[in-house]
What we know:
Elements (H helix, E strand, L loop, with lengths): L30 E4 L2 E5 L12 E5 L2 E4 L5 H11 L25 E5 L15 E5 L26 H11 L6 H9 L62 E7 L12 H5 L19 E5 L18 E5 L7 E2 L3 E3 L1
Amino acid sequence: MKDSNIIPLSMQQPNSVPDQSDAPTPPFAEMVWIPGGTFRMGSDDHYPEEAPAQTARVDGFWMDKMPVTNAQFQRFVEETGYITLAERIPNAADYPGADAASLVAGSTVFKSPGRRVDHNNHYNWWQWVPGADWCHPSGPHSSLAGRDQYPVVHVAWEDVEAYARWIGKEIATEAEWEFAARGGLDGAEFAWGDELTPGGKHMANTWQGNFPERNLIHDGFAGTSPVGAFPANGYGLHDMIGNVWEWTFSWYGAHSAPIKACCAVSTARSGDREYSYDPQQPNLHIPRKVIKGGSHLCAPNYCQRYRPAARMPQTVDTGTSHVGFRCVVRA
């Protein structure tokens, strides 16, 4: 049930950017001021990891209007000589029991099986591809030609941290990210209201059709899309829903502990690294961060996580073809 104190959607303005005349001076171009405040975080109506919905508070901060692009990440690489995790040979000590032949540089790429498969086995559509990385997103023979303004993908957590440090920014906490994604529509199902496609209009890059065998591409994109291809939310942020999942600063954990409405930044950073490990893989002691927003692979028949409340765990050593990021600056 929706909180009775939430402003009715009919009274909200989902596509109006708030007046920023009193906001602090932007520290960088292409950032917008997120005023902060109290909101209803999570959902009791969808996946278990989103519950229970509860009151949270964040302070105001600046956020990138769009995900970090290939062009932006390339500038970082060219100026620093940085080599992403996907481009390095894995350390065998981090993967006990792994076949030595599999310890090669690469990343995970979505490959449609083109037929109906068991949804309980994600290996039916995810493949480890040697040579796949941020500048070879589909594998060693692919490139970024014509994709400068697409979101960078195949970035692991340490790559994201390195970029943020270099440019002088940070990564949003889960609470900050969700508050920003809602665009002022506290309690709404999506970042733009309660209808997935209002008036038949696609508001984000998601999957249409039966996942993973057939994408009908009604939104115009079979894979990722250029940043800004879909309407901004109420705070002027593009691609907060769909296109690529986005890393957050927060360690993954249950949504069971109350989120206090004071000490906003420290509370928003809550979460314990030690409790973020996957209990189903006790021999793989790799912590996980929260990712938010869903991606172009989210579909009504499989993963309805194209919503602000949705959340998933991502191991810090793993970048994939559908995970990117954006940055924030705190006031």
